[in-house]
Amino acid sequence: NYNNTGIRIHNGGSFFNKNEVSEMKGSMLCIEDPFQPGNDIARASYCMFIVKEAFKLAYTWLRRAVIAPRKPNEQVFPMTDSILGTIVKVDRGIVDYRNWIKHKLDSF
Fold it and tell me: Where does the chain have alpha helices with state H?
């Protein structure tokens, strides 16, 4: 619950109630500075709802990619080189360029 819960990194990490720390009430995402307790290092973050929804959607896609389809010939996503490739798209031109560089370096 981002409205009431903050993240504390110090001493191995934990969660805390933002309402109990007055300096931490204003921002959606709240991460306490491990070197200066009471300082919210995430207070300048913005669009937290968009980021949260993006992670939620990525989780759904990754989950579908690793769970076997219901029918043998059913394909949830186009085939990629990796499971991570279902959510991280790299332009074909970049892939070709990287392969070209690798080929050039391998010839040395």
Answer: 48-66, 92-106
